[in-house]
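Need residues for this backbone.
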């Protein structure tokens, strides 16, 4: 196998994730990002199903991609009609996509109970649809929907559906585990039998209902499947689709198989966060390869071993996939995170030096008062820079005011006003928000917007409050953790105070300053 063909369906299957709704502009941006990553096919949507997808294909007709081919998705023709007269088939042709992927029924249960057609008519539908599209000079991929369930139910008929597509000159047949209920051992046995009958290239399309979508996709590759379909970050209906970030990383680093260009593998983390940002779906910190915690080390023993040999607790160099190693500050880690962070800042610091002891004491005082840098890496970096006199604030706060009001319509109204000085200029701004912290965030951004336009690319993705000493009641200190994200990265900041607004301000301030510091590098 020369390479594994990567077929991305984030724009179609991924958009079926609960809570995800891409605009046409979103889809165009994602397509361009996927093309830059180097995937081979981008499934743009189903032009016969909705106006948005039709508009996307029109928008892409005037754009030249460097690496990817845009594919249109649709179904086989309806029963008791001709492919040439079928509405969905016509829309696929009108999309002007050079590659068309159509799905058909391979499970006899779906043919009889869902399509309400005969088994023979279903075979005709597959052959007629594929054959017609081939006559229109299109590259045609046939998605054998529910193939593995169909094979388990009626293997002879399931194979017949594939043969119908092959005889109609399909370019590739993709075996779909649509319900996501197949085990890797079962999948391998079934693919091995399919290969006895099908001579054209095979692909794999898996869902993650058993948490095995990646494992099943890789098992299929081991059995000779040349095309892998999936989504970035595993987006998709129910439990999602096979995650292409993980698949691509494993193909290149563990299986030594080519897919996207080698030089593009380092873009996986950046692309993952870009998709997370546009889809408004937070990437799990422990996401393999690209997650914020994928290469994070907390225990002192682990950190000590990592300093001696990174292979001790990492299965590969995080830079390969565009991620980075992190040493987490906690009571378990001692001085080592301080020493390591100082080295990142080009400051020589021996863990036995008075300066290291002084920094550790400051850190312990902060943690004793409630700060948790273990979960706030951005605040820790700012703490280190400030302590080492290597940080210049981007602005100075003159003051802020926040209030909430319940109005006659029972809605809670929040407003914040803020006054800051940037480059000697005083800036005042006021904004409304869903709550006091949201209003304060909006007001601060408005005040800084003309000086630091990149703040538009940042958003708050999580906000957590914890009461540190419940015995103090309403006078207790609270710890606020804010997670923020832009198109390339995610970071967490912390604030502690008896006043929840002040604690939130500390975390918000660190979040904004970290973003600005990061962009300046």
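Answer:
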């Amino acid at each position: 196998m020369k390479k594994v063909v990567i077929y991305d369906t984030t724009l179609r299957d991924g958009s079926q994730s609960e809570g995800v709704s891409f605009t046409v502009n979103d889809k165009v941006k994602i397509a361009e990002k996927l093309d830059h990553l180097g995937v081979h096919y981008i499934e743009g949507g189903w032009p016969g199903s909705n106006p948005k997808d039709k508009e996307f294909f029109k928008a892409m007709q005037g754009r030249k991609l460097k690496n990817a081919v845009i594919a249109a998705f649709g179904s086989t023709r309806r029963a008791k009609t001709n492919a040439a007269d079928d509405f969905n088939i016509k829309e696929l042709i009108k999309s002007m996509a050079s590659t068309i992927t159509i799905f058909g029924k391979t499970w006899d249960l779906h043919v009889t109970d869902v399509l309400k057609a005969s088994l023979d008519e279903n075979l005709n539908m597959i052959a007629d649809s594929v054959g017609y599209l081939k006559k229109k000079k299109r590259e045609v991929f046939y998605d054998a929907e529910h193939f593995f369930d169909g094979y388990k139910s009626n293997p002879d008929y399931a194979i017949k559906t594939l043969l119908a597509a092959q005889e109609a000159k399909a370019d590739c047949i993709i075996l779909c585990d649509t319900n996501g209920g197949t085990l890797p051992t079962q999948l391998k046995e079934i693919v091995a039998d399919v290969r006895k009958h099908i001579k054209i290239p095979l692909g794999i399309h898996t869902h993650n209902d058993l948490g095995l979508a990646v494992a099943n996709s890789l098992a299929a590759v081991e059995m000779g499947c040349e095309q892998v379909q999936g989504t970035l970050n595993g987006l998709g209906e129910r439990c999602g689709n096979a995650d292409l970030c993980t698949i691509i990383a494993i193909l290149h680093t563990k299986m030594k198989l080519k897919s996207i260009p080698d030089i593009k593998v380092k873009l996986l983390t950046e692309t993952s966060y870009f998709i997370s940002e546009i889809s408004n779906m937070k990437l799990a910190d422990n996401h393999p390869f690209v997650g914020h915690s994928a290469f994070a080390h907390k225990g002192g023993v682990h950190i000590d071993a990592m300093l001696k040999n990174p292979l001790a607790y990492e299965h590969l160099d995080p830079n390969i996939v565009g991620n980075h190693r992190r040493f987490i500050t906690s009571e378990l880690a001692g001085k080592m995170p301080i020493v390591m962070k100082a080295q990142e800042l080009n400051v020589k610091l021996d863990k036995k030096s008075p300066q290291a002891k002084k920094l550790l004491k400051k850190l312990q005082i902060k943690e004793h008062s409630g700060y948790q840098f273990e979960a706030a890496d951005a605040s820790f970096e700012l703490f280190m820079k400030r302590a080492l006199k290597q940080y210049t604030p981007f602005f100075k706060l003159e003051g802020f005011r926040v209030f909430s009001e319940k109005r006659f319509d029972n809605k809670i109204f929040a407003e914040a006003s803020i006054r800051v000085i940037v480059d000697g200029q005083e800036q005042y701004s006021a904004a409304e928000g869903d709550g006091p912290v949201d209003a304060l965030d909006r007001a601060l951004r408005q005040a800084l917007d003309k000086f630091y336009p990149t703040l538009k690319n940042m958003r708050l993705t999580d906000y957590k409050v914890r009461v540190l000493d419940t015995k103090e009641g309403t006078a207790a200190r609270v710890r606020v953790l804010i997670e923020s994200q832009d198109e390339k990265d995610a970071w967490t900041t912390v604030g502690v105070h008896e006043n929840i607004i002040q604690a939130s301000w500390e975390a918000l301030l660190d979040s904004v300053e970290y973003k600005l510091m990061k962009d300046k590098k």
